[in-house]
Amino acid sequence: MKKDKKLNKKPNIGIYLAKIKGPIAAYIFLTILAAACDVFFAIFIARVLTYIKDENFDQAILMMWISVGITVFQRLCWLVVNWLYFKYSNKVMADLNLDLAKQAFKLNSKTYNDHDTGTFVQRIVEDPARIVDALTNIVDTVMNIITALVIVIYIATLNVWVALLLLAIVVLGFAIEYIRVKIRRKNRADVRKKNDMINSLTTEIVRSEKDIKSLGLEKKLTEVSKEKYVSYRQSRYNMDMTDMWMWSARNWLIGVGSLLVLVFGAHLMQISVSLLSIEAFIIIYTNRGYLWNLVMGVGTLANSFVDIKVSHGRMFALFDEDEFVTEHFGTETIENPVGKIEFKDVSYTFREYEWKEPERKFSLFKRPGAYRRERTLVAENKIFKDLSFEIQPNTTVAFVGKSGSGKSTILNLMSKMYEADGGEVLIDGKNINSLNKETLRKTISLVNQFPYIFDMTIKENLLLAKASATDEEIVDALKKASLYEFVETLPKGIDTRVGESGIKLSGGQKQRLAIARALLRNSNIIIFDESTSSLDNFAQEEVKKSIDGLKGKSTIIIVAHRLSTIKNVDRIFFLDSGEIVDEGTFDELFERNEKFKAMFLAENI
Questions:
Q1: Rounded distance between C-alpha atoms, residue 557 and residue 543, angstroms
Q2: What is the C-alpha to C-alpha distance for residues 159 and 267, in angstroms, rounded to an integer?
């Protein structure tokens, strides 16, 4: 828990790298040794050529044996470096994935509503891998740059005019790379954003396959997919084409420039061997490729910094409380909860924001964690103002009203999925915001309209609610949820795997499994949000029986479109435009409230 607080306070990749300081130091040290081997190898090979020219074969052979030893030592260094990378990069990525997933669990429901699935998948799963790879690439590239720089400087010391020519080529190459990276940073952020959208769309298509087929949406979804993929490809194309043209300019400069150095060296030798010796010319010729390595290395280094800045900012934006709002809990407990609920002058306004990247000057060395997007309010809708009501323990109540009247919002406030702007939501007389997480989650169970059933067995899905549940308790929960008879018909019974999102179960069976899951928790308050609205009449009746069987044992709150499913509840709250305009039993409201009566008659025509 201490670590989580630290992350929330100052999210930074350094927290994770600090845990493996020893392996990182070993990685850098061995990489330096391996890079140094390149420098010595280049010098010794140049000596070999000189000795052969002078027919000093004994020294030439000695230098070659030393070069063999350097190569063997370098290969051993790289072997250990790769082992360190694979072992500890996976550890860092695993820690990042876990902490980002933990942070995702802390986010409130509205945060999930405000962002698409791809936003979380990319930031939790893919960005950590990108940032670790980029960090490793930086170390390797820095070593390559240092090696190339040492050799280029060594070449430059052979002649001052050669040095000036090399300096001009390097400066021009760096300028091209700077411009390329500046453009790439903006393009990279746009590519990542559109990649998020593609991930979200793909997830939705996979999960809604049956609806797409049944509604004949293949053509429409294909068009939508094409539009998003084309947009993504265009952004990717723009980024790649910019890189291509800039790389071409850089490569042209370095290719022609390195040849000009050789031509210039030949002219110096023609004028006088004292200006440039044959040995020096051989060294320039054999090591001219390091000019490429130096300029290209700086470009690669800049690319890695761009990837780190983008990935680091996206990952740790999850800790930005303004955009990714987390749940907050108190410290109080309820020793013996009874399930009384009270709203006192509760106000809630739905606000929708638009987030965009701020305009800012490019800087490779600006702290990656200093990432903050700009927020603009684009929509605001007041749902409740001074809403008040009471629900007595162990009673069954329902909230009804037209779509948009605030029914589901009440349930979200009641279960602390949303937080009220004003007033109080009380559970057994205690403000819901003062209760600790364990008390709140244990006291309230929520069965959604489309409950998520995990790709596990029936038994494993139920054990998620209560890990210590016995087979007898599981059977009892299934019976109370009117699902046991169905489970008995399955060859593997409760050990039957139900598929992703419970795809092997019908809608009613999923609902009843979710009810059984809620029953195992033995919560004092059970909330049903539109639990029968998507079911056929037979499945609806089965689920209704399951809910009726809970009457008097827990406080039951139901939101329902179908008024026929709530005839037997103890009390009904009738909502209209965010206000409770009437309350009473079904018969009382049917008798005196024309709107309620009209709603019931309309669904039974």
A1: 14
A2: 13
pLDDT digits (tens, 9 = 90+) for 266-297: 888 778 767 777 667 767 777 677 777 777 77
- Any bridge partners for residue 379, and if so which? 352
3-class secondary structure, 435: strand
Tell me the two tokens of residue 173: 């190459």
The residue whose two tokens read 């139901």 is 558
pTM of model > 0.85: no
Is residue 435 within 8 A of residue 330, CB to CB? The reply is yes
Mean pLDDT of the chain: 80
Residues 6+ apart with CB under 8 A from 407: 399, 400, 401, 559, 575
User: By C-alpha distance, which of 504, 552, 501, 560 is closest to 531?
Assistant: 560
Write a three-state SS string for 382-434.
EEEEEEEEEECCCCEEEEEECCCCCHHHHHHHHCCCCCCCEEEEEECCEEHHH
Contact between 437 and 328 under an 8 Å Cβ cutoff? The reply is no
The pLDDT, as a whole number, for residue 378 is 78
Cα-based distances in Å from 386 to 127, 346, 381, 580, 602: 44, 5, 15, 11, 31
Q: Which amino acid is at 157?
A: T
Q: What is the pLDDT of residues 318-371, one digit of tens each?
A: 888 777 888 888 899 988 888 899 999 999 988 777 766 555 444 444 444 444
**Which domains are present in the chain?**
2-319 (1.20.1560.10), 341-603 (3.40.50.300)
Cα 150 from Cα 81, distance rounded (Å): 22
Residue whose entry in the numeric block shows the structure tokens 């960005």: 127
Q: Which range among 166-180, 438-452, 532-546 shows the weakest confidence by mean pLDDT?
A: 532-546
